[in-house]
Amino acid sequence: MASPKKKLQGLVAATITPMTEHGEINFSVIGQYVDYLVKEQGVKNIFVNGTTGEGLSLSISERRRVAEEWVTKGRNKLDQVVIHVGALSLKESQELAQHAAEIGADGIAVIAPFFLKPWNKDVLINFLKEVAAAAPALPFYYYHIPALTGVKIRAEEVLDGIQEKIPTFQGLKFSDTDLLDFGQCVDQNRQRQFAFLFGVDEQLLSALVMGATGAVGSTYNYLGKKTNQMLEAFERKDFSSALNHQSHSNKSSHSTVLFCIQRFINFVVKLGFGVSQTKAIMTLVSGIPMGPPRLPLQKASREFTDNAEAKLRSLDFLSFNDLKDGNLEACS
Ligand SMILES: CC(=O)N[C@H](C=O)[C@@H](O)[C@H](O)[C@H](O)CO
Ligand SMILES: CC(=O)C(=O)O
């Protein structure tokens, strides 16, 4: 049984896997990356080898080494390190789950298998159960991301009775825009101490209203500080500040943080939000080289990186320096 440890809450950064220009993993910057998240963004939880981390584009031995590096460098600095261990091969997934336990990770998360797919909730739960059983002392999270897995089984159904099947089940990472399904997950599990982690960053405020207890996302790598202020305002039940996070009321509604976060994410979405975009933006904002993604081909992403810098520097609503310093009040 999982030890009832501290509940995972607040912001969780979906970490990028830094790479060299040749596409090899650049382990040497992970320590610096931990410090950046903690000191500059106020983010102390991470989700490793997920979508943003390109977990499914890495080899199993790379995934093991990446997980080890984050756990080692995060020791005494981070609150929780959750490792995504989903894979098409149950054996590989179990191997990664066991490995996560051995290295002292704080939890594991698993997506639905996405090639030969589970056709109903019981088949999916049985797969998740087999993975969870390989790490019987680690909190287990189901990572619901139907747009990418193609597994459209509603999360509400997956959660129904899951704790009886998976005793280590501790929460849901919900990366979908169906707020009805998300709200049902919260409502149907009120007596349980599950973590409800929302994964569509641009809709976080709406998800908080529906009962999200935290959020996992790519944008918390570089918008963590501002998003934390929104969470704090929400926590104080200060909804107008959450929506309009600013100390001076004489600014136009366009200068509000929520809308600035939204504008910024919208800008990235228009660039074609993906791992290469996230890597390029994080490199520019943090100064830590994230390199190209493993996929797609490196040349294309390097072209993108050059483009991204020019575009980021010419945003009409936010200066590059204000973005870097997290001064989203400066949004105009
Ligand atoms: C598909 C994907 O990568 N989703 C991320 C996490 O679940 C989010 O953090 C998005 O990157 C973000 O919400 C922007 O759309
Ligand atoms: C965003 C997220 O949670 C992931 O990259 O897996």
UniProtKB/TrEMBL annotation:
Signal peptide bounds: none
Q: Key word Cytoplasm present in the record?
A: yes
Catalytic residues at 143 (proton donor/acceptor), 173 (schiff-base intermediate with substrate)
| Matching InterPro entries | Aldolase_TIM, DapA-like, NanA
Q: Name one GO cellular component term.
A: cytoplasm
Pfam families (alphabetical)? DHDPS
| The organism's place on the tree of life at top rank | Eukaryota
Choose any GO biological process term that the UniProt entry carries and state it.
carbohydrate metabolic process
The main location class comes to cytoplasm
Localization annotation: Cytoplasm
Q: Which transformation does this protein catalyse, written as a reaction?
A: aceneuramate = aldehydo-N-acetyl-D-mannosamine + pyruvate
Alphabetic keyword roster: Carbohydrate metabolism, Cytoplasm, Lyase, Schiff base
* Subunit field text: Homotetramer.
Q: Tell me its family.
A: Belongs to the DapA family. NanA subfamily.
User: Under which name does UniProt file this protein?
Assistant: N-acetylneuraminate lyase
Upper lineage is: Eukaryota, Metazoa, Chordata, Craniata, Vertebrata
